[in-house]
Specification:
- 0% of the residues lie in helices and 43% in strands.
- With 227 residues, it is mostly beta strands.
Length: 227
């Protein structure tokens, strides 16, 4: 059986987004990052923040106002920023009769039961510059990459986890050799190296609060880190 270790390198960036869904009195569509309020009344103003009050610019994930004499189409939904991490968000709606409603909803991760966990490659944690480090993960056994579509990874700090992902088909350019092709690769050990991770995600000298999976999820948003 042919076995190869395929190593990819891409940097973690705090501006990348996560795939998520929402529960509660508003729904979140993770295909297009649209939030739909339960009430589809005639809306004049909409703001979505990650704080209940006193939002600064960094807390705003959507803001819009209808032109004079018109209303926003709340049935069509409102597109959030694509870098919205897990947590509770607040959609504040001002209707055309000037009443205001604040709707909380929760963005959660989408790790599935059939996602294959990858394991930390021993000795792969390396300190870099500017308080950052790198780490690599590999599959425990050989896999048929043609059965998977996505690499998912997660970072945990103080009990809060952010989930990120890449489509395998979009990783081709990151291989050191153009002769390596992800499509149709069978019976290989597959590995991924994450670089420029903030040290807040380190867990002592030999560990990291980082996790990784191979997934068959075709609906995962392609919101990974930058090179």
């Amino acid at each position: 059986m042919k076995k190869a270790l395929l190593c990819l390198a891409f940097a973690f960036c705090t501006a990348v987004g996560v795939n998520a869904y929402a529960t509660g009195t508003a729904t979140y569509n993770d295909t297009n990052d649209i939030v739909n309020p339960t009430d589809v009344g005639t809306v004049k103003n909409v703001i979505i923040t990650d704080v209940a009050s006193g939002a600064a610019a960094e807390n705003i994930f959507y803001v819009d106002q209808a032109p004079s004499g018109s209303v926003l189409n709340s049935a069509a939904g409102f597109a959030m920023k694509k870098d919205a991490p897990n947590g509770t968000y607040y959609m504040t709606l001002r209707y055309d009769n000037n009443t205001t409603e604040q709707i909380p909803f929760t963005v959660k991760n989408s790790i599935k039961s059939d996602d294959m966990p990858m394991v930390l490659l021993p000795g792969s944690i390396e300190d870099g510059e500017d308080g950052k480090f790198s780490v690599a993960f590999v599959t425990e056994n050989s896999v048929n990459l043609s059965e998977y579509t996505t690499v998912k990874f997660a970072f945990t700090e103080n009990g809060t986890t952010g989930y990120f992902g890449y489509y395998l088909k979009n990783l081709q350019a990151k291989f050191p050799s153009s002769e390596i092709n992800l499509v149709g690769q069978n019976g290989v050990f597959f590995g991924v190296k994450l670089t420029e991770i903030e040290n807040i995600y380190k867990n002592g000298a030999g560990g990291a609060n980082v996790s990784m999976w191979l997934s068959k999820d075709e609906n995962w948003k392609d919101k990974g880190g930058n090179q």
